[in-house]
Design brief:
The protein has 251 residues and is of the alpha/beta class. It contains nine helices and eight strands.
Length: 251
């Protein structure tokens, strides 16, 4: 038998959520719902109100459908609803880009993100991607506004790939295997997100999730989810790297 290789680089596909994980919105007050609400209003030609609806953990297609239904458009024929949703999706990237350009929409990085992205980018065997409810076309705009280069992410699974967040990990794995020409086990995929829905979309497929309490869900709520690990934020880089590159499982 040949020699046993020691300290073989771990294979990891790290899939980042965007909103309240990598970045947060810092819009001026009075813009509830931000670009999504404006795009749906533009597409429908009528005022659309968010009300008490939460967008956290939802994909953009899911949010658009819920907004239309909550604003009296839920009884549209399926074809008419699909056409209206498609117009909202088409409008959204331009609405977001215009708002970023004129300062209406602002996004900032969360603590520790720049350093962590750089460090993970230098780890052999680690591939960074996105797993987000955002439409793919919106991601470069939103990340770029916060000073993050979308190009550092090798692949992504987006709301434009599937409205159901629980479908996104298999999509990301298929993209990874297609791009790199090698398989990856679900347990070597880690989703980083800020909601119980991020945790569920990973663990339902045998992948793992690092949940961070940087959004609307607190640490106690996240500890009650299926998340593999829970942290208050991502500023403690040694601890974060320790769990992302570890084979153990612990909250």
């Amino acid at each position: 038998a040949g020699p046993v290789a020691l300290d073989t680089p771990k294979t990891r596909l790290i899939l980042w959520d965007i909103d309240d994980t990598l970045i947060k919105s810092a819009h001026a007050s009075g813009i509830p719902g931000g670009p999504l609400l404006q795009a749906v209003t533009q597409a429908s030609g009528r005022p659309i109100e968010k009300g008490s609806m939460s967008f956290s953990g939802k994909t953009d297609p899911q949010v658009v459908h819920e907004l239309l239904s909550a604003n009296g458009l839920g009884d549209l024929a399926p074809a008419a609803m699909a056409d209206l949703e498609a117009r909202a999706f088409a409008a959204l990237p331009a609405v977001m880009a215009a708002g970023v350009a004129n300062g209406t929409f602002c996004y900032v990085q969360l603590p520790g993100i720049a350093e962590l992205l750089k460090e993970l980018g230098q780890c052999e065997g680690v591939v960074q991607g996105l797993l987000t409810g955002n439409l793919e076309a919106c991601c470069p705009v939103k990340l770029g506004a916060a000073g993050i280069d979308h190009g550092i992410f090798v692949l992504g699974a987006y709301g434009s790939d599937a409205a159901d967040r629980n479908s996104l990990v298999p999509i990301a794995i298929a993209k990874y295997e297609g791009l790199l020409g090698q398989p990856i086990k679900p347990c070597d995929v880690v989703v980083i997100g800020d909601t119980p829905m991020d945790a569920m979309c990973a663990t339902v497929h045998g992948s793992r999730c690092l949940a961070v309490a940087t959004g609307s869900f607190g640490r106690t709520e996240l500890e009650g989810s299926s998340a593999t690990w829970v942290m208050p934020d991502l500023s403690d880089m040694p601890s974060v790297l320790g769990v992302l590159l570890d084979d153990g499982v612990s909250k």
